[in-house]
Amino acid sequence: MLEVKDLHVTVEGSEILKGLNLTLKAGEVHAIMGPNGAGKSTLSAVIAGKEGYEVTSGSITFKGRDVLEMDVEERAQAGLLLGFQYPVEIPGVKNIYLLKAALNAQRKARGEDEIPAPEFMKLVKEQLAAMKMDPSFLQRAVNEGFSGGEKKRNEILQMLVLQPKLVMLDEIDSGLDIDAMRVVAQGINSLRDPERGILIVTHYQRLLEHVEPDVVHVLVDGRIAKTGDKQLAYDLEARGYDWVLEESAA
Amino acid sequence: MSDEQTFLDKLQARNAVRGDEPTWITARRQAGAARFEAVGFPHKRVEDWKYTDIRSISRGDFELTDNAEFSPATAAALTLPIDALRLTFVDGVFSRSLSDLNSLPEGVSIEPLSQALEANHEAVGGALGRLAGIDFSPFTALNTAFTEEGAVIRLAAGTVVDKPIIVQFLSRANDRPVMSHPRVLVEAGGRSEATVIEHHAGEAEAANFTNLVSEIMLDRGAILSYYKLQEAPVGDLHISSLHAEQGRDSRFTSFNLTLGGALVRNDLVADLNAEGAETQYNGLFFVRGRQHVDNHTLVNHNAPRTYSNESYKGILDDRARGVFNGKVMVKRDSQQIEAYQNNANLLLSDRAEIDTKPELEIYADDVKCSHGATTGQLDEEAVYALRTRGIDEQMARGLLTLAFAGEVMEQVQVDAIAERVELAVAGKLPERFNLAGLVESASALGEE
């Protein structure tokens, strides 16, 4: 589903990703862990098309399409969706408009008609309930005045409504208390599907207790230094990252 | 014949057919006419009118009418769907059939000016013209000369009115353009609370001239929200001044929302005359085509510990022009006042123009004042965030433009107005934004 090959990315003149390789198949949940500054957020930002990142070599393909050739909105319409570490506040834009516009953009890209209003409301209300969010959220401006936990829940709500093919979550667990963590994890688990890939970028193993990954990668200094199963996440939690660094240097 | 003479001749003809009236009214009429004749229409060399050309008015030939006929179906479509106490005027003429003044709550008096003058002219005479003198502007003088109709709203001390009070002005598509010079007079007694909605709308082909003067008096502790929803047809010409006088601990919140009209000039003046008085000025205008809107606001901090906060936003498309002039005056000895002012504008076309000018005159030293004006740019980070959800760039910009207006509408406490304005803005934004169908009324979403 997602294939990243020998990816080199430069930000403001310095190389952050230095030949990263990653293959993610439909139905799999991958976690990318690593110390600060390893390039974790850079990877998801480049896949989502954020400006300011220069891909100097390598490739990203999604379902056979060259992602780097696609506009930001095209990537989302094709089913690549990124949940942000720091969701942006958008004063004045109601959540309901964002959800409806985004869903219809996706449908339009697939050649489908716009969703009828009653069907849309039904869908959104179900997912709101799943995320334990009050319907009044719909009339509030996107993320404005939301707590950290509310912002993250809102990111997952967008995923639940938009049902992307590939879910990327950048440090979705940062700033969450235990209860919010549980709700967010439930939301992610409900997105598990044989047709969908999930890529979780995280600093801590905490979230992975609730969302069990199939594959765990350790990203160190711009490259995947080690790949393993969920046990690797526990090892990292117990032993830190230094041993991986030493191993990969050896 | 001079432009002014055309209007004075109309006045003379009108006076000739007037019945007996109290001498004070005749005297004021004469004073208004004399003042108007002496100063004439304002021209662009006058600082206050530098950016606003009123020749479409001064060179016009407008009739006066006594006819309040209006298609009931059209009126129903234009009327705000609010359970309210309602006074309706058609081209300035009171329409009893389109008004709803049944079951006025205790302590509330709402009547057309003509009726109030007939019933007890002396009670009206003291208040009328007290805040808006003939020297305020040539248009106030002209209005005073022609004064005959309008809305008189009185709230007894301690009265809290649950239903909004709507003063609706309907403009009719006449064979010949018509003018009217209505007054609005609101006397809010001590600790009274109410919401007044001044609503302008009309038939699409109308091209009339309205010259409105409003005076609002808030006694100690009174709380008044005053909405002006300007949805007049795009051929209408509209000049108005709204004067508020505030007693101790009173709170006046103004929403000045302009969507319609070919030429709209609003002067707002608030006199904060006693400690604790607070004024909130909120404004939104969205104009396109060749529409012209000019908002001149003035807050006079005449007493210590008075507060004002002003936020005006404008969206301009095509060749529309906007003017914002916000003045704050802090008198000597008006210590510990707070006055904030902001004006932000979005231009959607290279040919649209906004002239914005804040003016602070401060003669006290212990004050907190700020002002800011931006003309501008959308938040690119927000554009990106929307695009990451699959929304194309144009629509993202459309949503953020709608949001720009939405930030004002979030403050609006009357849902029907917030919804109406939002739908109107979404519907009138350029097609390239592709917002059609996105914004739906609560009823369409089954959310009522």
Unreliable segments of chain A (pLDDT under 50, ≥5 consecutive)? none
Give helix % range of chain B: 10-25%
Largest interface: A-B, 37 and 32 residues
The profile of the biggest β sheet of chain A is: 6 strands, mixed
For the CA atoms, what is the radius of gyration of chain B? 22 Å
Quaternary assembly: heterodimer
CATH architecture of chain A: 3-Layer(aba) Sandwich
Mean pLDDT of chain A: 92
Structural class of chain B: alpha/beta
Strand content of chain B: 35-45%
- Looking at the structure, the CATH topology of chain A is Rossmann fold
> Uncertain regions of chain B: pLDDT < 50 for 5+ in a row?
none
Mean pLDDT of chain B: 95
Strand tally of chain B, please?
A: 20
Shape of chain B: globular
List the helices and strands and how they pair.
The complex is a heterodimer of chains A (250) and B (448).
Chain A lengths: L1 E10 L2 E11 L4 E5 L6 H9 L5 E9 L2 E2 L5 H6 L2 E4 L6 E5 H15 L7 H14 L10 E2 L5 H15 L3 E5 L7 H14 L5 E5 L13 E6 L2 E6 L1 H10 L2 H8 L1
Parallel strand pairs in A: 3-10, 3-11, 6-9, 9-10
Antiparallel strand pairs in A: 1-2, 1-4, 4-5, 7-8, 11-12
Helix pairs in contact in A: 5-6
Chain B lengths: L2 H14 L6 H17 L15 H4 L13 H7 L6 E6 L2 E8 L7 E5 H13 L12 H9 L3 E6 L9 E7 L7 E2 L2 E6 L4 E10 L6 E10 L4 E8 L6 E10 L4 E8 L4 E10 L5 E10 L4 E10 L5 E10 L4 E10 L6 E11 L5 E10 L4 E9 L4 H8 L5 H17 L5 H14 L20
Helix pairs in contact in B: 2-6, 7-8, 8-9
Give the key terms:
heterodimer, A: 250 residues, alpha/beta, Rossmann fold, 4-stranded antiparallel sheet, 8 helices, 12 strands, 36% helix, globular, B: 448 residues, 10-stranded mixed sheet, 37% strand
Task: Please tell me about this protein's structure.
The complex is a heterodimer of chains A (250) and B (448). Chain A is of the alpha/beta class and 250 residues long. Chain A is globular. Chain A is 36% helix and 28% strand. In chain A, strand 4 and strand 5 (65-66) form a beta hairpin. Chain A is built from 8 helices and 12 strands. Chain B has 448 residues and is α/β, with parallel strands linked by helices. Chain B folds into 2 domains: 3-274, no CATH class; 380-448. Helices cover 23% and strands 37% of the residues of chain B. The mean pLDDT of chain B is 95. Chains A and B meet through helix 2, strand 7, helix 3, helix 4 and strand 8 of A and helix 7 and helix 8 of B.
